[in-house]
Amino acid sequence: MASKVSDLLNQRGIAGEVKPKNVAGHGKQNRKALGDIGNLVSDREIATGKDIARKAKQEQQKQSKAEVIIISPDENEKPCKPHFSRRGSKTFTATLRARSNAANRLKDAVIDIDAADSNNELAAVEYVDDIFKFYKAVEEEEGRIRDYMGSQPEINVKMRSILIDWLINVHRKFELMPETLYLAINLIDRFLSLTMVPRRELQLLGISSMLIASKYEDIWSPKVNIFVCISDNAYCREQVLAMEKSILRQMEKLVFYFAELGLMHYPVVVLNRPSILAASAVYAARQALKKTPTWTATLIHHTGYLEDEIMEHAKMLMKLRDSAPESALRAVFKKYSDSENGEVALLPSLAD
């Protein structure tokens, strides 16, 4: 009995209280962050929790590396290097930067061929894009040339080739701009597609076209007398100038021809407005010259008429033109059969 009492006393302190063992808040005991109600955790449990956290972090790093997107705009280009933050994960800013770099590489692949002329005011680099857009827009309307050899009784393909070969030598001798040669040949073909030219005037057409082209493209244009000399005086100065006018004024003269034919027709003049006659004459001239499209948005804007509003009037003018050679009233036909008016009255009709 005494031994049991002594044992009990040994377990009590001076105040007679039992010394607590592993009581929370005393000594260097550890707590769980959000454990059970007792909030006690052993050293073994703490070690196990650290291991779990470490493994979770490692798994997270592996996953973030696996999800890195390699941006490569082209299979021949080197893949972009992934960028990671200090914690090992790829940042949003780095992703955007990588995508931007890839886009810039694609943009840089287009070479600015006009950069070398950036300081050349004559090159007009700032207008190059707009110029080429315009040329493409009008290429179908004005630039295409129909097959005309069938309508030229005195000219064939071989004669044309001989003329072009000679003009290339003339162009080189005069040291003209490259564009001058191409424009001159284009003028020749366009004129031949609209007008019958005798064999004896084919070279005259060539030098007159070169004269016009040189005025348009070159700073210094050869004088008319130089072209006369280069043709071995086969033509005089007045003939060259007359052909030049014929090339340049054909569309204008043809419009006047249709309009004056309309003046003789009572329903066209009296029963309609003058603007109807003017617009119909332009439409008929473009139809005769095989311009496509016959009526454009530009013409609609400036005349104020849609194609349907003037088509019947234009057909009437074209009938008058077809009957003009056999008509007893021939004043208009004779007037526009003259070389001064480009001989537009002699152009083949649409039915030919």
Automatic annotation (TrEMBL):
SMART domains: CYCLIN, Cyclin_C
Keywords: Cell cycle, Cell division, Cyclin
Stored InterPro entries: Cyclin (IPR039361), Cyclin-like_dom (IPR013763), Cyclin-like_sf (IPR036915), Cyclin_A/B-like (IPR046965), Cyclin_C-dom (IPR004367), Cyclin_N (IPR006671), Cyclins_cyclin-box (IPR048258)
Region (Disordered): 1-36
Domain of life: Eukaryota
Pfam family, one: Cyclin_N
GO process terms (BP): cell division; mitotic cell cycle phase transition
PROSITE patterns the UniProt entry points to: CYCLINS
GO MF, one annotated term: cyclin-dependent protein serine/threonine kinase regulator activity
Domain Cyclin C-terminal residues, every copy: 224-350
Family as reported in the entry's similarity comment: Belongs to the cyclin family. Cyclin AB subfamily.
Protein name as annotated: B-like cyclin
Species this chain originates from: Thlaspi arvense
